[in-house]
Amino acid sequence: MKYLPSCLLFTYFLGIAPLSAQQFEYSIDDREIVPGIHMLICDAGGYIVTAVASTGPDGLLLVDTGFKQLAPIFRERVESFGLGPPKVIFNTHTHVDHTGCNHLYGEEAIIIAHDTVRTRMRSGRYVLEEYPDEALPDITFTDSLTVHFNGDEIRILAIPGSHDDSDAIVHFRKTGVVFMSDLYYGKSFPTVDGEYGNAATYPQTLDRAMELLPEHVQLIPGHGTYVGTMADLREYRDVLNRTIHIVQKGYKKGKSVEELQQAQVLRDWEQWGDEQAATTDYWIMAVSRSFDQQKFGAKKSLAQPLYYALQEGDARSAIARYYELKQSSPDEYNFTVGGLYNVAFNYLLTKERNEDAIELFLLIIEEFPDTQYLWAIHDTLGELYRKLGHHERAIAHYEQVLELKPGNPNATAMLQELSAETSGE
Ligand SMILES: [Zn+2]
To answer: Is residue 275 a part of any domain in this protein?
Structure first.
């Protein structure tokens, strides 16, 4: 059983990895791009995030460390190089699917990242991760930095502002390999950080990357398995440019996200959608939202205040805090499904505070009865109630899923299993 709908939902809101942990089969494949430079393809139930390893006489250098649920197999993979722990780790940005195993080697390795990564890891929604000190970057930079390692000149270049505000790419200058991380998704639309990213500026950040890179390089994306060329990257920039303009045209006419999605304004770019990450509907939403941000200014995440409330009390304290903030600071915080979902899914479920998580999911239904992800919330509730042995409640939520998404295969299967279990009792 998987929390797949929830993962998709999570990706939708935050542009980062699914975190439902144990339910997934994890694997890491090693593809050697040129001798000594390995693309590590980390797969969680079809959701792929990549990392890069440089191996050679100086030892091991890593670029990114996947998400924390990979830790056991990430360690195995690192050990398989037979070089001991990494000496240097670069993080290409703050997202949890790129920094998640930092803690494994934080004592031994020097971790290098953009200035913003270090501050972010201790604030906003990242407080939910409870990173230990050793997981934080030791050396930070704002422009670029070069490490001479394994005979290569390895440059990390800051290009923040589109996917996230802490983005960097890593250029192995002698071997001609570039880890583009989340500035490049190969053959699909990118995801964009809901708080610190800006979809509309993707083409400009890609232009900046192209100015800094030579023509003959191999480009490793932060997600997916497609290794691209500069010609691919130019095409990618053009696709983003054209699709952004289409969405912008609709936005300027006052069209809502839903109207643009229903009108299928990006129907000619369907093949650039990815069901596991950024669909065309997602891209329409992300681009529109970035125009909203420009108009209204970005708001604060609910994660931090709710996290502190949950440290001192249970879901009731968090819900009380939520309503307090809604009353006192309606314009300061981002009151969204995603904000609440992040706390319930990424924090409470990871801590196995299932009852508290249920209360927050119920709050989402109460507060956002019209959200298009209502079915996924019911699906998660069905799963949680079943886990806790409340079969009738589980059935009620799965029935809601079917009402909203007739024929939904997971809910149908769950209802069959639940009725078999109930009649067998
Ligand atoms: Zn990312």
So the answer is: no
- Assess if residue 93 is contained within a domain: yes
- d(CA 385, ligand 1 centre) in Å: 32
Give residue 194 CA to ligand 1 midpoint distance, Å: 11
Q: From ligand 1's centre to the CA of 188, what distance in Å?
A: 14
Residues of the chain above pLDDT 70, percent: 94
User: What is the CATH number for 311?
Assistant: 1.25.40.10
CATH code assigned at 63: 3.60.15.10
- How many whole angstroms from 182 Cα to the centroid of ligand 1? 5
**What's the rounded Cα separation, in Å, for the pair 341 and 372?**
14
Mean of the pLDDT values across residues 181-200? 93
Within 10 angstroms of residue 334's Cβ, the number of other Cβ atoms is 14
d(CA 340, CA 333): 12
Q: For 389, list phi and psi in degrees, rounded to 5.
A: 85, 10
Kindly list the protein residues that place their beta carbon closer than 5 angstroms to ligand 1, a single-atom ion: 95, 182
What is the domain range of residue 191? 4-244
Q: Give how many domains the chain has, as a whole number.
A: 2
- Is residue 295 situated within a structural domain? no
Cα-to-centroid distance, 386 and ligand 1 (Å): 32
CA separation for the pair 96, 108 (Å, rounded): 20
Structure pTM? Answer: 0.85
Residue 6: per-residue pLDDT = 39
What is the Å distance from ligand 1's center to 192 Cα? Answer: 7
